[in-house]
Structures
1.
Amino acid sequence: MTQRKEQKQIPCVCDKHYIKERLQGMGVRKGMVLLVQGKMEKLGKIIGGAQTLIDAIMEVIGYEGTLVMPAFTPYKKDPACLWDGKEYREQWEQIRKGERPFDRKLDAPRNTLAAQFMRNEGVLRSHHPLYSFLAWGKYAKVIVEKHPLHFGLNEESPLGKLCELNGYVLLFGCGYASCAVFQMANHALDLPVRLVSVPIAKGGETAFQELLDIPYQNDVFQEVGMVMEDRKIVEFMYINNDRCRLFSAREAVNIAITYGHLKNGAFA
């Protein structure tokens, strides 16, 4: 990828035309398979909000392209598996009895951009109760189908399919530490296996099922991103004063794996 000159601008009110120009200027093109992650609050004023941003991306890549977003729902874990679960340990059984099974139509991701994307016509969602992905476009079904329950971010997950399709990652309003594609690299390292319990529908009732997983880390992903920037494989562009990043998913995973092995086989 040829690196283009950054164009930082003073804050302004953004419309769809402006965003499309920014995207095309950094290398987003028709037919691209694109994993997008972003925080709308970092982008400043966009006329029409998150839907304008989504429309702009869809129009640039076209339906021959594919737009993908993580739609993670970590709040669906058994309370014993949540980092703050000990604060209400006495209510664990009450929570378990009242919890609904994961529903890919009703359980919205907390991220504003992904929650809005989920409402669009033609968007499909994978079935994973914790690590589901949303997809729209040519390869949407290929990406979201057959999402394994165990080790939900491994090479057989939508992240692996993104890499197989030579997809790219676009980050808005967030850094490398938030980038989901790096989590796939953890599965190439010698990390301990853990159990995570999640609610699923079984016989018309809610049952908690244990899934095999690994402890996902993001402590050094910012460092991995800096390595990528040093190798000049990251494109930059500004929307208002937010620095957006575009890079190959496959290259990112390969560099993260190499970096992880250099860290004695684990990111932590």
Note: Residues 220 and 259 are 9 Å apart (CA to CA).
2.
Amino acid sequence: MTTSGDHAAHSWVDVLMPRTFTLWTMILGVASVISQAGIIVTGGAVRLTASGLGCSEWPRCTPDSYVTTPEMGIHGMIEFGNRLLTFVLAAIAVLMILALLRVRKTHRSLFNMSIVLFLVIPAQAVIGGITVWTDLNPWVVSLHFIVSAIMVSVATLLAHRIGAERRARLTNDHPVRVQDGQSNSLTRVCAIVIYVAGWVVLVIGTVVTGSGPHGGDPTAPRHDFDQLLVTRMHAAPVYLMTILAIVVAVMMYRMDTSQRQRRAVWAFIAVIVFQALVGFYQHFNGLPILVVGLHMVGIGLVTWAMTMVLDVFTAKYTTRPTQAERIVEGPKEHLASA
């Protein structure tokens, strides 16, 4: 005989660890993207407010305390607040792993991506510690940022595939392809080059940042590069990405592309135009803090958008039943054929 307490516990287990792809799984996928992009924005806020050394030690905030103290002032609060967000990322990552745990045998790639999202969190914490120990060395700060951007891309792929799995179950239509419309060699090459060029933009952008005035602390070391030169190098791949996006936009109306493919391309064009306008404005107006912060928001959007374009034109991923669904469907298929 089961008690109501046992039933409630069983229900909570099924919610946290479903045997299929539920709304909860989809929520966690979206939360993974938002949180990974959000850490880029909060990290930018730390740098822009000169709070990079607000906590002078790591893993402690001060030599005598793991938390900020009144003596550390507002900079200590900002830096310690950013450190606390790591626990939010960890909580989402753990819940994501649990949500995919029971489907891992049939959806190994998705489960592996959730593991990667979790394992990178302690690695990022260590990189953050090295950042403090090196007094915000711009190369280490760049590594910290690039790893976060990579995780935005991984989370985007994970959420996009979970979305496809959800659509397959809501429409009862297997298999659903992530690339659900036509793609040819030109659109595939353009999508790949856009994605690669996007990473070139991000990497050179860290050099631009490391050569600029917002180092996270007045005493932080800076790159000895010509800022105008590296800024132009940073902008060049953006022109290439824009041209290729226009090529894809023209091509997709000459092909049997899906609504999701068209939405992905237009979203990317909108994001890249927004980011370019913000970038030009901040460059010609002395890098105002709020505008630079807006540019940091755009970085997360660009990473998400270029990953989506890559996925909808090149992905081979198709949905499939989970192990539990195969067990349920098996008898039905047997009866139908009898």
Note: Residues 332-338 have pLDDT under 50 and may be disordered.
3.
Amino acid sequence: MAQAELPAGCTARPIDPDTDLPAVQHLVNTCERALDGTAATDAGALAAVLARPGLDPAADTLLVHTGDGRLVGWAWTDRRTDADVHPEHRGRGLGTALLRWIEQRARERGTAELAQIVPDRDTAATALLTAHGFRTDVTSWLLAIDLADLPADLPPAPEGLTVRPFRAGDPADEQAAHRLTEDAFDEWQQRRKDFDEWAANTVRRPTFAADRSPLAFADGHLVGAALALDLPDTGEGYVETVAVHAGHRHRGIARHLLRHTFHACRTAGLRSCTLWTHSATGALDLYLKAGMTVRHSSTVLKKTLA
């Protein structure tokens, strides 16, 4: 089993999903605030990581504590990987120790390639990974729109389209949205998510905002969806997924669904709405034409393991 070589005074153990999530969220949010001034990761996102198919929390996660019991670092790995080090404990070799543990554990798992998303603003993390043989893959962008600038009224729906909010807890809506989004993303994602994994990140997530998640229908069939989350600590709306059936693209459906979400967020008293996209999807122009602007970017770094 992979063992971490830690700085003096630190200890390591796997995460306990039943008791450690609040401390991990606090650590991740602290790192986010240090980098961006705001915290975006909610407990549901971390729970979804631990529920990834094939990830064993007892073997594929690591928490690092100081001698007084303070959580100062954590990491996980399966098909992807991630790690965080408390801002006050950087520059002491902890990030390098976590990276070595990640690579050792990945080799034990038989992982052929590691992938980690790193904010471009985090130059220290980028330098660390690059020095250890990681290479640049795709670019991701966080886009935002100022909701105060929205037109007062929604534009009419594209011809032949009806739009309504997602019905929270409705199995029919859940299953239809799962099929739609996985079919739409088959063009670029490495694998399809089964319903449980997909739902844990979207409609079964505690922060799922059904009233801000419009569905578009043509002839009674779901052809488009924008699934939103409520991140109350940010003062912003967030769109987790935008998907349109391949046979109904280039009709303005995605842009119309975004407008519904933006207006719902403004009605809820939010100041802005954000979403992530990356270069493999080819969707950046869509969001720019919808009035969004790039706030910052991240890069997916990959390493092939011998």
Note: The two ends are 18 Å apart (CA to CA).
